[in-house]
Amino acid sequence: MDFDDFPGKPINWEELGDASYAMWAPSDEDPLFTKSQVTGRWTDIYETVQEIESYIAANILRNLGLSEDFVNRIELPDELNTIAVLAAGGIHIIISFSQDKGIRFHFPNTASLDYRLNFLDRYIEVCKSLKKEIEVNNWSKDADQDSIGWWNSTLKIIAITERNGAVDEVGKII
Fold first, then answer.
1. What is the dihedral of CA 16, 19, 23, 29, to 10 degrees?
2. Average pLDDT of span 1-12
3. Which domain, by its residues, includes 158?
4. What does DSSP assign to residue 101?
5. HSE-up of 174 (CA within 13 Å, CB side)?
6. Taking the C-alpha atoms of 13, 18, 22 and 27 in order, what is their torsion angle to the nearest 10 degrees?
7. Which of these, 50, 44, 54, lies nearest to 74 by C-alpha position?
């Protein structure tokens, strides 16, 4: 499967405008994080990328033209690192990389639920395709990667928080 155009092309931060960017934000059609289809997609992503995030990071950065073609793995940074991207459909997104939270996509509050779901479905395809390639080639897995731990903690905290009221945004980039 060819994912050379995923996730888009890098842009300057000034092009982002004044939108708010988050992994999930409430909308009329998607008011609760704990019941959101977006949340389910993120859970699938975190389960799929366990122990292979260095390969996925390298693939994303190669596709963005930000690393050499021969680079197969890139260790995620200790501190949060972000890239602004123009994705399919002319939507600006922010990609963040960090050891503790993994690789995340932050959508503008103006992106529709359908757009977010379709984008995340495409990302799941990318991750599963790379995972299969890694397994077929018997490449070594990432050690000490626990971004799924952050995700599982986030799920628990938000579930408790939503019992007492609505949540504004999850995974917001400020």
1. -130
2. 74
3. 21-99+113-163
4. T
5. 2
6. -150
7. 54
Domain count within the chain: 1
Q: What is the pLDDT of residues 48-105, one digit of tens each?
A: 999 999 999 999 999 999 988 888 999 999 999 999 999 988 999 999 999 999 999 9
- What is the pLDDT at residue 4? 59
C-alpha to C-alpha distances, 115 to 24, 25, 39, 101, nearest whole angstrom: 12, 13, 14, 23
Tell me, yes or no, if the pTM score tops 0.85: yes
Instruction: Tell me the per-residue pLDDT of 126-167, one tens digit each, with 9 for 90 and over.
Output: 999 999 999 999 999 998 778 999 999 999 999 999 999 989
Token code pair at residue 63 = 């596709």
Q: Has residue 168 been placed in a domain?
A: no
Say if CB 45 and CB 120 are below 8 A apart: yes
Cβ contact 102:42 at 8 Å: no
Domain assignment present for residue 170? The answer is no
**Would you say residue 94 lies in a domain?**
yes
Gap between the Cα atoms of 118 and 124, Å rounded: 10
Which residues neighbour 172 within 8 Å (Cβ) at sequence distance 6 or greater? Answer: 20, 21, 22, 23, 25, 106
